[in-house]
């Protein structure tokens, strides 16, 4: 690993894109990482009636070009998970452009919060494989390590020093203390188990305290559900994509009036199933990164860690 | 300190007088009690009450329709029950009301902000909240950190409970509306700017709506897409429409429990709106919502003496 003073690195990044600082304050409840790739409201196209010429359609250029500085590993991992939805089977051009142009400077997490449980998912606060550049704040300097080619390019022209053994030792000690501060939830086998639990009575118990607001889904760095709306004005209008939430009744309401998820119980089940059963089934990865944002944002203290423990304890017929 | 309550709940459950007891239990986060339904006598051991209970528990009564339930309530929650009964959402005979003392609900977000670092544990000691965490141990005077809504509460204790748990409650004699008066004195332009700054933080997660016991409509105007009353984006006019129309629907129906404000993940001061409603209803109609289950809805009655000076 190399090292550099934080101020020098920041100065180097000046003018290379819109610098978004995530290292200064805790990004709660919303994080700029998800919104920089999937904004809560995004213009997809404009249309207008132009006299005899008929309807004119204009597709706006999407914009990336952000330098996200200080992204925690959990959120960078979350963007990798968003890729599975927006880039894998078919490419979403709006997302793709932002993903291609944004640069993620990931900062190892020295001080995990009480709600963090990232280590449950096979990575941790010092995992260096996410984003474009991996950084560790060792006090007087930042240790930096490019992860992608985009990352190497972003560091080009900088005079980087070689990290000393004592720097690396410092990093190891920070890593140990950070990892030690995180409570791991053992989720082994949960996705297979959930497959057999669709009709289990436990969902009603679990969903009791949930009031079905969308707070957890909106703060979640991996929740990507959206709604597409045509907004009509007099002789013009636009199509936009806005965040949506599976917690809302209208989310699954069909045109016929039928709602396959009529109550909060089915909606809660879907949220957990999607992250811990459907995502692993489709992509081989959990749809949760253990960042704990939903736990902090929930108005009634629904705690996903507790829910997972409860689900684990349920006895299911083989 | 919860022995009396737990004993009462245990007895109700073991004698089969009720199927369940609705209240709060310790949560997984410091300073946060979580809604809890005790269904077996031994589960009564988990029940707690106090300033760490953020939601209005009456919200959960709609999930218990058809069940014989006991519910543990503070003043505002008992007034909510009266409103629900007067609006025919609840039968008085279906609920056993256990009143608990109330010193106000904690404005948890303010303590989190003032403390700065991560809080790992908290407890109440006398009139103080003691928190421990990354910045060491600190004590906060509870009265200074209760929700703004609780500051103007005149009824901290449950009205006509079936069972009353004794204990010290907040002094309900002093209603402090000074922050609302400050807004009232602003010019229209200043008010607009003030509310825009506050409400533009809204992400439309509807936690405020869902946590509200009086927002029980099966289908909400914001969820209607035929016609679209409020567009789904984040235009300020749409955000404002949601909050203002919600407030119109709350006039005379809001007990100002402050649960919506405590539920907001963005920390929007919704009590600026709910407390103005409370203040106006009192001043214009001498009306306080939820004092009795027989009370007629404020906007459902007319008297020739009603004030008209605000009609343009």
From TrEMBL, chain A:
GO molecular function, one term: iron-sulfur cluster binding
Keyword Iron-sulfur: yes
Pfam families named among the record's database cross-references: Fer4_22 (PF17179)
Gene3D superfamilies: Alpha-helical ferredoxin (1.10.1060.10)
Residue ranges occupied by any 4Fe-4S ferredoxin-type domain in the UniProt entry: 200-231, 278-307
Superkingdom, natural source: Bacteria
PROSITE patterns for this protein: 4FE4S_FER_1 (PS00198), 4FE4S_FER_2 (PS51379)
Keywords for the protein's UniProt record, in alphabetical order: Iron, Iron-sulfur, Metal-binding
Database matches in InterPro entries: 4Fe4S_Fe-S-bd, 4Fe4S_Fe_S_CS, Helical_ferredxn
Protein name according to UniProt: 4Fe-4S ferredoxin
Organism, as annotated: candidate division WOR-3 bacterium
UniProtKB/TrEMBL annotation, chain B:
Keywords: Iron, Iron-sulfur, Metal-binding
Keyword Iron-sulfur among record annotations: yes
GO terms of molecular function: iron-sulfur cluster binding; metal ion binding
Record has tRNA processing as a keyword: no
Domain of life: Bacteria
InterPro entries in the cross-refs: 4Fe4S_Fe-S-bd (IPR017896), 4Fe4S_Fe_S_CS (IPR017900), Helical_ferredxn (IPR009051)
4Fe-4S ferredoxin-type domain: residues covered: 193-213, 245-275
Protein name, UniProt field: 4Fe-4S ferredoxin
Organism per entry: candidate division WOR-3 bacterium
């Amino acid at each position: 690993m190399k090292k550099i003073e934080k101020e020098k690195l920041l100065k180097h990044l000046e003018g290379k894109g819109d610098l978004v600082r995530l290292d200064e304050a805790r990004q709660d409840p919303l994080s700029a990482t998800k919104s920089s790739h999937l904004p809560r409201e995004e213009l997809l196209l404009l249309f207008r009636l132009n006299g005899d010429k008929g309807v004119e359609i204009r597709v706006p250029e999407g914009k990336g070009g952000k330098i996200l500085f200080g992204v925690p590993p959990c959120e960078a991992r979350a963007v990798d998970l968003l890729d599975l939805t927006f880039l894998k089977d078919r490419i979403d051009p709006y997302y793709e452009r932002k993903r291609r142009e944004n640069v993620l400077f990931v900062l190892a997490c020295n001080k995990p919060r009480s709600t963090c449980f990232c280590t449950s998912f096979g990575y941790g606060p010092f995992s260096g494989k996410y984003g474009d550049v991996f950084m560790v704040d060792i006090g007087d300097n930042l240790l930096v390590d490019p992860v992608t080619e985009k990352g190497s390019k972003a560091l080009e022209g900088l005079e980087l020093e070689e990290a000393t053994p004592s720097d690396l030792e410092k990093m190891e000690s920070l890593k140990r203390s950070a990892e030690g501060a995180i409570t791991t939830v053992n989720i082994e086998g949960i996705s297979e188990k959930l497959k057999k639990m669709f009709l289990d009575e436990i969902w009603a118990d679990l969903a009791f305290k949930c009031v079905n607001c969308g707070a957890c889904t909106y703060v979640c760095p991996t929740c990507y559900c959206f709604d597409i709306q045509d907004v009509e004005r007099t002789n013009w209008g636009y199509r936009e994509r806005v965040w949506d939430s599976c917690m809302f009744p209208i989310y699954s309401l069909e045109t016929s009036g039928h709602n396959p998820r009529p109550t909060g119980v089915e909606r809660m089940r879907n949220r957990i199933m999607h992250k811990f059963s459907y995502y692993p089934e489709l992509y081989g990865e959990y749809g949760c990164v253990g960042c704990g944002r939903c736990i902090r944002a929930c108005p009634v203290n629904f705690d996903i860690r507790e829910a997972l423990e409860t689900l684990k304890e349920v006895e299911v017929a083989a | 300190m919860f022995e009396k309550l737990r004993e009462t709940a245990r007895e109700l459950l073991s004698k089969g007088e009720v199927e369940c007891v609705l209240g709060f239990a310790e949560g997984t986060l410091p300073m946060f009690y979580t809604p809890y339904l005790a269904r077996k006598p031994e589960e009564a051991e988990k029940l707690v009450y106090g300033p760490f209970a953020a939601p209005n528990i009456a919200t959960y009564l709609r999930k218990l329709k058809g069940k014989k339930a006991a519910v543990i309530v503070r003043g505002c929650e008992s007034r909510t029950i009266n409103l629900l009964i007067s609006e025919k959402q609840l039968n008085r005979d279906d609920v056993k009301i256990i009143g608990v003392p109330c010193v106000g609900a904690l404005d948890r977000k303010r303590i989190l902000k003032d403390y700065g670092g991560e809080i790992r544990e908290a407890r109440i000691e006398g009139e103080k909240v003691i928190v421990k965490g990354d910045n060491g141990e600190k004590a906060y005077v509870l009265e200074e950190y209760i929700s703004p809504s609780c500051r103007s509460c005149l009824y901290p204790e449950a009205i006509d409970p079936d069972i009353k748990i004794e204990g010290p409650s907040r002094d309900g004699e002093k209603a402090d509306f000074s922050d609302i008066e400050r807004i009232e004195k602003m010019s229209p332009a200043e008010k607009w700017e003030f509310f825009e700054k506050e409400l533009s933080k809204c992400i439309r997660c509807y936690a405020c709506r869902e946590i509200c016991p009086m927002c029980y409509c099966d289908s909400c105007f914001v969820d209607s897409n035929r016609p679209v009353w409020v567009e789904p984006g984040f235009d300020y006019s749409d955000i404002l429409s949601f909050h203002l129309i919600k407030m119109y629907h709350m006039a005379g129906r809001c007990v100002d429990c402050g649960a919506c404000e405590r539920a907001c993940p963005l920390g929007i001061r919704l009590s600026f709106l709910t407390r103005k409603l409370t203040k106006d209803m009192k001043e214009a109609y001498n009306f306080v919502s939820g004092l009795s289950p027989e009370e007629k809805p404020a906007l459902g009655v007319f008297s020739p003496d009603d004030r008209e000076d605000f009609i343009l």
